[in-house]
Write a structure and sequence with these properties.
Elements lengths: L1 E5 L5 E3 L5 E3 L4 E4 L4 H5 L5 E5 L12 H4 L15 H4 L5
Antiparallel strand pairs: 1-4, 1-5, 2-3
């Protein structure tokens, strides 16, 4: 939730906050989606804490779902170069 400070001269009843009376200089929590509706009234409300940035939803592909497989162990031995070549005298 975001937070705003009421800077008006007299208490005000805020229906969106369950009809509660907000006093001058009082800080209240407001729903993140309604934050802009308060701070766009700079003569009545002052920003205290902006809404938290939500992580954008990622489109996870099939590759993200598959567990990483370890490399398969090598099953054949390499032939040594010297033994593979015959030397002629």
């Amino acid at each position: 939730m975001a937070r705003v400070r009421f800077i008006g001269p007299e208490p005000v009843t805020v229906p969106e906050l369950d009809g509660r009376a907000v006093q001058p200089d009082e800080v209240v929590e407001v729903p993140d989606g309604r934050y802009e509706g308060y701070v766009c009234q700079p003569d009545m409300w002052e920003a205290v804490e902006e809404p938290k940035q939500e992580e954008p939803a990622r489109d996870i592909g099939d590759a993200d779902l598959a567990p990483a497989r370890p490399a398969r162990p090598k099953t054949t031995a390499a032939k040594p170069e010297a033994a593979a070549q015959k030397t002629e005298d």
